[in-house]
Amino acid sequence: MKSIIQIKNLTKKYKIEGREIRALNNINLEINGGSFTTIVGKSGCGKSTFLRIIAGLETATSGQIFGTNKIKSSLVFQEARLMPWLTVEENILFPLKNKKKNKIQPKVEEKLQLLGLKEFKDAYPDQISGGMAQRTALGRALIFESDLILMDEPLGSLDAFNRYKLQEELKNIFSENDKTVIFVTHDIDEAIFLGDQVLVMDSGAIIEQFNLKKELNLLKDKEKYLELKEEILSELKA
Ligand SMILES: Nc1ncnc2c1ncn2[C@@H]1O[C@H](COP(=O)(O)OP(=O)(O)OP(=O)(O)O)[C@@H](O)[C@H]1O
Ligand SMILES: [Mg+2]
């Protein structure tokens, strides 16, 4: 498949009280159109910084990203960031606020159903749980039909049951369309389940890249699965 995003020598430095932090350290990466890339890595290794820079919300200190200026992208933040004066339904609809209501109503119904938010569609963000808020944020990203969807631990605040359910749904949604997804998670099983490729990050660098597309039977082959999981885990511990 064609690579749509090329990242070259990407570095991001922050200064905190005179001390320099390299949040990203010379990242080189190509992302194929239509692929689902998952990123795992310890807290503070630079995952959110990486997504924010790809989304164009922050600038890199040096290096380049090619391909993102021609496509629409959306970012699901680590925290929900809803607009408190809008209901759940209105928050989901927000990116489409200029479109005709009768055209988008079926879409919003579908997202509310998918995310289990139908009963709460008229509630305001301060009346719903953290998990519901996160699902609302997910709905808002899914309804805006962008080519590139960046997700920063979008399932982090969900209970185990909803988390599994949404993992299945995300897999279904994105295996059917040609959208490109970059998905950050702390959960190695989630990364393997969803990813065509899994990237392991450490101290601002991509230290390992596992291509899972080649191993389609991975999920059925328990031994192979555990082997891969162990390998990712040992990369994270190293
Ligand atoms: N706006 C900022 N100003 C200064 N330092 C920052 C800023 N944002 C991030 N950093 C630093 O950059 C490093 C990477 O942070 P980042 O939020 O990207 O990590 P992360 O991998 O997303 O962590 P987590 O898993 O906890 O969300 C950290 O050392 C952090 O302190
Ligand atoms: Mg983060």
Given helix and strand content, the structural type is alpha/beta
> At the third CATH level, what is the topology name of the largest domain?
Rossmann fold
- Under the CATH scheme, the architecture of the largest domain is 3-Layer(aba) Sandwich
Question: Which hetero compounds are present in the coordinates?
Answer: adenosine-5'-triphosphate, magnesium ion
Rg measurement, Å: 18 Å
- Poorly predicted regions are none
* Terminal residue distance: 32 Å
The total of helices stands at 7
Largest sheet, described in full? 6 strands, mixed
| DSSP summary, beta strand count | 9
Per CATH, the superfamily of the largest domain is P-loop containing nucleotide triphosphate hydrolases
The CATH C-level name of the largest domain is Alpha Beta
Q: What percent of residues adopt helix (DSSP H or I)? A: 25-40%
